[in-house]
Write a structure and sequence with these properties.
The chain is of the alpha+beta class. It has 16 helices and 25 strands. InterPro entries: Thr-specific_kinase-like (IPR052969), VWF_A (IPR002035), vWFA_dom_sf (IPR036465).
Length: 632
């Protein structure tokens, strides 16, 4: 197994910046008991900043600004907006809120769930979460708040989706506690404050006007290995039929198709011709039927690949990267395959990304990924169906819609055609409904709507309106909310993320690479795993003696992961538990680490994901809200 070099120099960069700050005579104060985490505060509305600790020449400071703390004098703190300084002035400590963690909450798409309520006290939030009729109680609280009646609700999530990747905001989590319920999953009660980004000043569009400009791109990602020709023909025919139906309608300007083909690695089967190939991308600048000649030559391979599983992740990655998704409000991929996907640890994988990492990349672009899985007799004979179904259910998870997984029993071409036709027309129907441009005869009157595509389309519509209208997070000083819908705890209402700088993500990657190297080197002698870890980390540590007393992996990953409300796969591993889990489980852990490293490289390679909170805009201090599930 090989892992490419990372984007920064790991722990070295994390060491260099504080050194530079010390050279300038300025270093933020450390949090009590920490060695690398600095004190930070968020200003309350009404805060002022003075030139010195006496309060001289105080000027107003915006609420919800994030600052590092450099010194404390009586009731004032000296602050700056960058870890390397300079200090900007002094603020009354009572006008700030300590932010000990870098946890933040981000709204999930509200399609298919109730809007998030922010309540005034933990008691009111606890009562709501544990009430037997919590759904009805939440609905009553929302009605009262919208009617202007006094009550515990101090803020409500906007109706539109607030996409942190397009309209950055901070919803810092000061504390997260677990609340167990009589049924369903446990819920995190969150103590939060709100720090929305400044508005752009753009005049909001009215919803009908904005929705008429809603455009959608649907890209098919098709397995074109041997024996797939009937399905290729049926997909091409379905695209042709839909284009014929909509070609002379007003909605034709709002919808485009694309097609990406994939096969497998050419390293052991050169006769496959290609691993992935982009036949057409959805192009609003060309007529809708321009795709038909572009895809007319798609055909299956003339030779068989080396294994039943193929590189579906490479096809998905190619479709994610080759399309300008920013031009579309509706962003849809439909993967069509009869086989499982090569895992990230497969030596013939082109991307070396796992299923979870591929889903993260699609989610970062706001793409809904559908999977049409052909349950053919050949797959049954290869005992591939259950394994592939598990992969594709995970790959196609999309918010409250669940898994966008469509198995085709028997896998016959005549059974496949109605599935792909129905899925395509359902998505187009949703676009027609959204834009207010109906297409006569598109969907039979007696056709039952697909509840999954309805939720996905609502999600796309809310995300599009959020971007078009610059929807911001609500202004809240402090409040309490939950990470799941009180009416249905299976639906997540907010994601808990960790705001990591490039330096911190690089440092985390360096730690993971050290762990991976030690695990790979110790495969024949696993009893030396921790000894090698301690030696490797001690070589670059400021206090090597402290490393020699570490008895689990957690402390080696970085203090910024301490206290987070998630269960790490590797943090609790000790030498004894490493030996007890056996070679197969050890290999799984190492493969997961390798996949995480590749995901972090993907995060780094996408500049649109990174945001500067400081005015200096130091490259290493740009931040990205890393989802908890993307942590090791």
């Amino acid at each position: 197994m090989t892992v490419r070099g990372f984007f920064l120099t790991g722990a070295l960069v994390a060491w260099m910046l504080p050194q530079a700050a010390r050279a300038a005579g300025l270093t933020p104060l450390l949090q009590p008991g920490k060695h690398s985490l600095y004190q930070r505060v968020i200003t309350r509305p009404g805060a002022t900043m003075a030139a010195d600790e006496t309060g001289t020449a105080a000027k107003p400071v915006d609420g919800f600004e994030v600052f590092y703390v450099f010194a404390r004098r009586q009731d004032r703190i000296q602050v700056g907006d960058s870890v390397s300084g300079p200090a900007l002035g002094w603020i009354e400590e009572s006008r700030t809120i300590p932010w000990p963690h870098t946890m933040i909450a981000t709204f999930t798409n509200p399609a298919g769930r109730n809007r998030v309520l922010f309540l005034d006290t933990p008691g009111h939030e606890q009562d709501l979460l544990t009430a037997p009729d919590s759904g009805a109680r939440a609905a009553a609280l929302l009605r009262d708040a919208q009617a202007g009646k006094p009550g515990p609700v101090i803020a409500i999530e906007p109706e539109n989706y607030v996409d942190i990747k397009k309209n950055f905001y901070l919803l810092p989590v000061l504390d997260a506690t677990v609340t167990d319920r009589d049924s369903g999953p446990s819920v995190h009660m969150l103590h939060v404050i709100s720090a929305p980004a400044a508005g752009t000043g753009t005049q909001p569009l009215s919803s009908p006007e904005a929705l008429r400009q809603f455009r959608a791109g649907l890209v098919f990602v098709i397995d074109t290995t041997a024996s797939m020709q009937p399905y290729i023909d049926q997909t091409r025919a379905a695209i042709g039929d839909i284009i014929h139906t909509m070609q002379n309608t007003a909605v034709a300007r709002n919808f485009r198709f694309g097609l990406v083909a994939y096969r497998d690695s050419l390293s052991d089967t050169p006769g496959l011709e290609y691993a992935t190939k982009v036949y057409a991308t959805p192009d609003l600048g060309r007529p809708i039927d321009a795709i038909l000649p572009a895809i007319s030559g798609v055909h299956d391979a003339s030779v068989s690949s080396s294994s039943f599983d193929e590189d579906a992740v490479a096809g998905v990655r190619s479709a994610i990267d080759s399309v300008n998704w920013d031009q579309f409000g509706g962003r849809y991929l439909v993967l069509i395959t009869d086989a499982g996907a090569r895992g990230g640890d497969d030596p013939h994988s082109l991307t070396h990304l796992g299923i979870d990492e591929a889903r993260q990349l699609a989610a970062a672009k706001g793409i809904a990924l559908f999977v049409v899985h052909l349950l053919t007799p050949a797959g049954d004979a290869a005992h591939d169906h259950a394994h592939a179904a598990s992969q594709y259910r995970a790959l196609s998870k999309f918010g409250s819609a669940g898994s966008l997984y469509y198995p085709v029993a028997g896998g016959a071409p005549e059974a496949f055609r109605p599935v792909v036709q129905s899925l395509s027309t359902s998505l187009l129907q949703q676009v027609a409904d959204t834009t207010g441009r109906p297409v006569a005869g598109l969907t039979p009157r007696d056709a039952k709507p697909d509840p999954k595509t309805a939720v996905v389309s609502q999600a796309m519509r809310l995300a599009y309106l959020g971007r078009a209208q610059n929807t911001a997070a609500p202004d809240v000083v402090q409040s309490y909310t939950a990470d799941r819908d009180p009416a249905d705890a299976l639906r997540k209402s907010v994601d808990i993320r960790v705001l990591l700088t490039r330096n911190q993500l690089s440092d985390l990657a360096a730690s993971l690479r050290t762990i991976l190297d030690a695990g790979l080197a110790g495969r024949t002698t696993p009893e030396t795993f921790f000894t090698q870890l301690q030696s490797a980390f001690a070589a670059s540590a400021r206090d090597p003696s402290a490393i020699r007393h570490v008895d689990r992996i957690g402390p080696l990953l970085g203090e910024y992961l301490d206290g987070l409300p998630y269960k790490s796969d590797i943090a609790s591993i000790t030498q004894d538990s490493w030996l007890a889990m056996g070679a197969i489980a050890q290999r799984t852990i190492l493969n997961n680490i390798a996949s995480r490293l590749r995901l972090y490289e993907e995060f780094d390679s996408r500049p649109e994901l990174w945001v500067h909170l400081d005015h200096a805009q130091a490259p290493g201090e740009a931040v990205y809200p890393v989802p908890l599930e993307a942590l090791p």
